[in-house]
Amino acid sequence: TVYADTTWRDPRVEQTERFDEVVGRFLLPAADQLLVGDYDRNATNDIFLLSANGDLTVRSGVGMGTSIFSTNIGPVIGDVLLDDYNVDGVPDLYLIDETVDVLLGPEYTLGYTDIGVVPPREAVLVGDYDGDGRPDIYALEDGRISVLLGGARSQTEDITSWFKYEDQSPWDAGPECLGPSSCDQIGFVFGDSELWLRKNLSWDGGDYANFYFGNPGDVGVVGDWDCDGIDTPGMFRPGNGFAYVANANETTVASTEFYFGLGGDIPLAGDWDGDGCDSLAIYRPSQGKVYLSNALRTQLADVDYFFGTPGDIPFAGDFNGDGRDEVGLYRPGDGFVYFRYEQTSGAADKAYYFGDPGDRIVAGDWNGNGTDTLAVHRKSEGRWYFRLDNSQGFADHILEAGPAEEDLILLTGVFGDLPYGEN
Fold first, then answer.
1. What is the H or E stretch that residue 200 is in?
2. Are 243 and 297 in contact (CB under 8 A)?
3. Dist. CA 262–CA 131, nearest whole Å
4. What is the pLDDT of residue 173?
5. pTM of the full structure
6. Residue 397's CB: how many other CB atoms inside 10 A?
7. 28-54 b/e (C-beta count within 10 Å ≥ 16 → b)
């Protein structure tokens, strides 16, 4: 029996009733499972009947129950759900016990299987948790929901998708770039001076442009050296303070070379004076001192000041949205973060904890609101944990990007339109 979603309102009592009108009634064969979905893509739900021995029948939603497809999918154990696994508009069958089997419509042949990935649960549903357009699995147990993410992670992956159950902090599609400002991207440098720059922070942008710049042992940075709005590579040679930068995200020679700093200094890139162009700074851990330069040339620092405790790790970003970058410090032993809004010695303007001991920290404008916030990279997992506010709290987004257990130099910047490389 099918009831229509008819709505009426009594103005005297402000009452609305639904599903009170019978619009269809027809006989159906016995079945153990009843599901509905738009099998024939005509914008009307059809009826899926499934028996325990695997007999599947699809009945038309507009033809008074006329059979439009039937097959046997084999014995059915566990939960049965419908959703569009491969995003072709036809409902697919999810058979979920400890194993996930996905049968692809319209013929309902096996398209994906994975063994032992679903935790014990009281209830299970499928739905798009992270906004990538692919169904994910929700498992409820003892009042806690685990989300097992599904769907291809990049444009080049095919139907052999995946589900993971590793812990209670599933990674997602990364921060959404809402603007109006450009959003920062992420990248990293391997030890042989190979740069990998990621197109964006979503699964659709899981591809990288990769190229070489610099020599092994150089410390990589990225910055907008030519003021065109695009961040490109630079390298700092910690043995002698030699710096060189390029104006293209490709294997190329340096466009500018100069000396700034001493061996052992830690380089930073940023727009220190708000002129729209990036230049270098160095942090001297032995002194707890910052040296800022507003030009890409050999010279004394334009600004220098004491800040922080020796041994803390420096990072840079525009933390108050005033158009000038500032220097912050991170204590990897306990995740303590602090930064100043002025380029002078003094106490921190903001301080809080973020991340776990041993995390690596970066800053960027992840959502395009004009203010930089933090992210940490957890080497053991190959995951990035993004925070969208400069305050203590849990990560707003978690993204798996890049290899785990690798010693990487982390990069963040606006890389523009990158050519696809590898993924």
1. none
2. no
3. 47
4. 64
5. 0.62
6. 20
7. eeebeeebebbbbeeeebbbbbbbeee
